């Protein structure tokens, strides 16, 4: 199985944010607000509930400074993503490796889009294994550059 | 004109509607439905209310012929070459045994009885021969109806089908020989050779016409692929065949049987659904046929001593068929179930016997037993009365035979199994619950350690929220790094509906198809969300297949 993914269908530049807060809740809230504006998301409140419920079950900090909060909801039409670059490391994320989180990829998909959803999760986690890419993203001066880095690598 | 139309339509309605009501009443008493049809016929016919009188039965004769044609066609469809090849020797021996057994016992004792009453040697001998020949016939229609009703399958069922289908030809041959001999014995102008020639020509003609129609129908079936048109073509062709054989005065049932038999053997796969289609269309025709058969019988007009012949005929015929079938089966080393029970299934008597008795009454009209009683009339009365008795006793005996042999209820399909099951019969019970926050690596461990293919996912209140199957694990198989940070709820399929253990399986399978899901949890009751089991489509299919094989497996008695 290849993790190749047409990123343009799930992410655009407007959904790449530079985050200043070092608090998980604040950062997630900002990303939820951003993702809720995507046309694929029909119920912002449900999105917020779903994301926080999933975090309650188990933290989505997967290590290497990455957080992948994700949720499947009836009110999402197709897979969609937004990216947060944390200028200040988030220390209360409770990651698997206990380290701070610097990059957050928030993903939402429809309840029936099981395969696409898992493929997007796999794509993100495998792509971010590249340390140079992670560092380039963390150091990106603005969202435009960050988006280009994500998109470029994708080609 | 309107009155005639009204009365015919009324009779058709009363016969079919009443027949079905009668059948359901008798079915409740565990008596084959065909007895119910005939009983209703007796009530509404000559012996009872006379709503359907003799002239109505005569008016409806074309319907009876059409029914015989459809019945013959369906019986022919049961005669597959493979079973013939396998059991040809046995069938032939049993056929000769039961046919000649009934012929000899009925013939000898009827002749002695008539001689005892009238002291007329040649007439007694002639009567014996004709009664014997008529006694050798078995009614395929009611016998096969019972076999279908009780979904019989096995070597006894195959043998019964073949023998009841073939012994009409034997009866007609014996009849041809018998009436020829009888006419000579009584000083008539007949000759055995001429009679045998006539019968041979009639049998050959029936087979030839059936064969020609089968070839035409095959051609049509290969070109037409719409069930409705196939049905219409077949019905049209059967009607044409019947009209020709009636015009040529040859046997309807034998010709339509040839049509069915040749077709099923030329297009074994293609014709499977086709015969199913014809069978589904045949129910009202069947009902009408048997109701009219019952209505035709007039038991009140019989002279007292005739009951002596009736008793001798019924007892002799039953004993002859049982003994002859046993000897035939024994000589050819047939399976024990055939030896023991086949004779029991051969009592029914129908159209062919009545037809032969009518022919005999014409052939032997000049033979007088006494001054005012012709042998022909005695034969008509006696055969009508015996038909009444054996037609009521015969089908239940077929049922007894297939029940004793263990072949009843074995001709089952997947649909039958599904209809007989509830959710409780196929659900996985004792399934381990997976919590929604359980890391995937732990959930995968559950799959490895246990045999189930699917597990319910529950929230912290143990309420079901989804299911995880092997299929859902497959999606994350290549990305095993994610197993540490994904949880059960990330990969589960959300619950779209739930089933109760008491629900009919068919409804739930339909529901799963409609929702396009492979698994469905089972909960205790409408108010509970706690799973007590889970349904998995693949497992359900496997269990159904297994059950079909189990129910079709030969009963112990067959292989003893």
Mean pLDDT of chain B comes to: 82
Largest sheet of chain A, described in full?
Answer: 6 strands, mixed
Count the beta strands of chain B: 10
Helix-strand makeup class of chain B: alpha+beta
| Radius of gyration of chain B, in angstroms, nearest whole number | 30 Å
Portion of residues within helices of chain B: 55-70%
Low-confidence stretches of chain A: none
Describe the structure.
The complex is a heterodimer of chains A (155) and B (560). Chain A is an alpha/beta fold. Chain A has one domain: Mannitol-specific EII, Chain A. Chain A contains 5 helices and 6 strands. Chain A has helices at 24-36, 44-57, 114-127, 131-138, 143-154, and strands at residues 16-19, 61-63, 66-67, 70-73, 80-90, 101-110. In chain A, strand 2 (61-63) and strand 3 form a beta hairpin. In chain A, helix 1 runs antiparallel to helix 2 and helix 4 (131-138) packs antiparallel against helix 5. Chain A is globular and about 35 Å long. Chain A starts with 15 loop residues before the first strand and ends with a helix. By secondary structure, chain B is α+β, with helices and mostly antiparallel strands. Chain B has 2 domains: 6-411, Na+/H+ antiporter like fold, CATH 1.20.1530.20; 417-551, Roll (CBS-domain). Chain B has 24 helices and 10 strands. Chain B has helices at 2-28, 33-44, 54-59, 61-77, 81-118, 121-135, 140-149, 155-185, 192-223, 227-247, 252-266, 270-296, 306-331, 336-341, 351-363, 375-404, 414-420, 423-426, 440-449, 470-474, 488-491, 505-515, 537-552, 556-559; strands at 368-370, 373-374, 428-429, 434-435, 454-458, 464-469, 493-494, 499-500, 519-523, 531-536. A 4-stranded mixed sheet of chain B has the order 3-10-9-8. In chain B, a hairpin with a 7-residue loop joins strand 9 (519-523) and strand 10. The radius of gyration of chain B is 30 Å and the shape is elongated. In chain B, 49% of the residues are buried. The interface between A and B is medium-sized, with 23 and 19 residues.
């Amino acid at each position: 199985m290849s993790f190749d993914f047409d990123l343009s269908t799930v992410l655009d530049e407007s959904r790449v944010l530079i985050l200043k807060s070092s608090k998980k809740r604040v950062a997630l809230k900002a990303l939820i607000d951003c993702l809720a504006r995507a046309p694929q998301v029909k119920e912002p409140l449900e999105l917020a509930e779903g994301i926080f419920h999933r975090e309650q079950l188990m933290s989505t900090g997967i290590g290497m400074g990455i957080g992948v909060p994700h949720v499947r909801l009836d009110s999402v039409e197709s897979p969609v993503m937004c990216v947060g670059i944390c200028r200040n490391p988030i220390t209360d994320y409770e990651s698997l490796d206990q380290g701070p989180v610097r990059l957050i990829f928030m993903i939402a998909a429809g309840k029936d889009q099981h395969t696409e959803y898992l493929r997007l999760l796999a794509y993100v986690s495998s792509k971010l294994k590249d340390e140079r890419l992670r560092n380039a993203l963390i150091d990106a001066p603005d969202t435009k550059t960050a988006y280009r880095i994500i998109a470029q690598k994708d080609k | 004109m309107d009155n005639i139309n009204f009365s015919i339509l009324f009779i058709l309605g009363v016969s079919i509607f009443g027949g079905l009501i009668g059948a359901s009443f008798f079915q409740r008493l565990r008596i084959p439905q065909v007895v119910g049809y005939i009983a209703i016929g007796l009530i509404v016919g000559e012996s009872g209310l006379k709503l359907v009188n003799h002239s109505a039965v005569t008016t409806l004769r074309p319907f009876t012929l059409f029914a015989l044609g459809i019945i013959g066609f369906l019986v022919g469809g049961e005669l597959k070459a493979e079973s013939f090849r396998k059991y040809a020797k046995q069938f032939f021996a049993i056929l000769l045994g039961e046919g000649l057994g009934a012929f000899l016992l009925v013939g000898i004792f009827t002749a002695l009885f008539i001689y005892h009453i009238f002291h007329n040697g040649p007439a007694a001998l002639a009567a014996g021969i004709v009664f014997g020949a008529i006694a050798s016939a078995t009614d395929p229609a009611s016998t096969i109806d019972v076999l279908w009703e009780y979904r019989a399958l096995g070597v006894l069922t195959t043998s019964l089908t073949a023998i009841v289908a073939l012994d009409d030809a034997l009866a007609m041959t014996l009849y041809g020989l018998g009436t020829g001999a009888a006419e000579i014995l009584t000083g008539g102008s007949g000759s055995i050779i001429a009679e045998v020639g006539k019968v041979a020509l009639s049998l050959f003609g029936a087979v030839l016409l059936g064969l020609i129609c089968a070839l035409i129908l095959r051609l049509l079936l290969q070109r037409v692929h719409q069930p409705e048109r196939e049905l219409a073509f077949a019905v049209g062709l059967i009607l044409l065949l019947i009209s020709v054989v009636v015009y040529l005065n040859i046997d309807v049932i034998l010709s339509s049987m040839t049509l069915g038999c040749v077709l099923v053997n030329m297009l074994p796969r293609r014709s499977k659904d086709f015969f199913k289609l014809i069978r589904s269309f045949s129910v009202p025709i069947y009902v009408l046929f048997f109701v009219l058969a019952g209505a035709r019988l007039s038991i009140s007009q019989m002279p007292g001593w005739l009951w002596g012949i009736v008793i001798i005929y019924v007892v002799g015929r039953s004993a002859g068929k049982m003994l002859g079938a046993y000897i035939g089966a024994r000589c050819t080393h047939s399976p024990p179930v055939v030896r023991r029970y086949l004779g029991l299934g051969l009592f029914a008597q129908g159209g062919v016997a009545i037809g032969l008795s009518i022919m005999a009454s014409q052939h032997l009209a000049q033979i007088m037993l006494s001054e005012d009683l012709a042998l022909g009339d005695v034969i008509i009365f006696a055969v009508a009365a015996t038909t009444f008795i054996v037609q009521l006793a015969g089908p239940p005996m077929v049922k007894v035979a297939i029940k004793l042999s263990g072949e009843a209820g074995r001709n089952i399909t997947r649909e039958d199994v599904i209809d007989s099951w509830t959710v409780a019969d196929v659900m996985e019970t004792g399934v381990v619950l997976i919590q929604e926050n359980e890391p995937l690596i732990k959930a995968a461990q559950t799959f490895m350690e246990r045999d189930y293919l699917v597990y319910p996912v529950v929230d912290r209140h143990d309420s079901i929220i989804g299911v995880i199957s092997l299929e859902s694990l497959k999606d994350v198989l290549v990305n095993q790094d994610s197993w540490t940070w994904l949880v059960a709820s990330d990969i589960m399929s959300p619950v779209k509906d739930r089933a109760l253990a008491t629900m009919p399986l068919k409804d739930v399978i339909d529901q799963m198809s409609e929702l396009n899901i492979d698994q469905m949890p089972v909960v205790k009751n409408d108010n509970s969300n706690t799973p007590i089991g889970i349904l998995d489509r693949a497992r359900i299919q496997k269990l159904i297949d297994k059950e079909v094989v189990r129910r079709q497996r030969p009963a112990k008695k067959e292989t003893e």
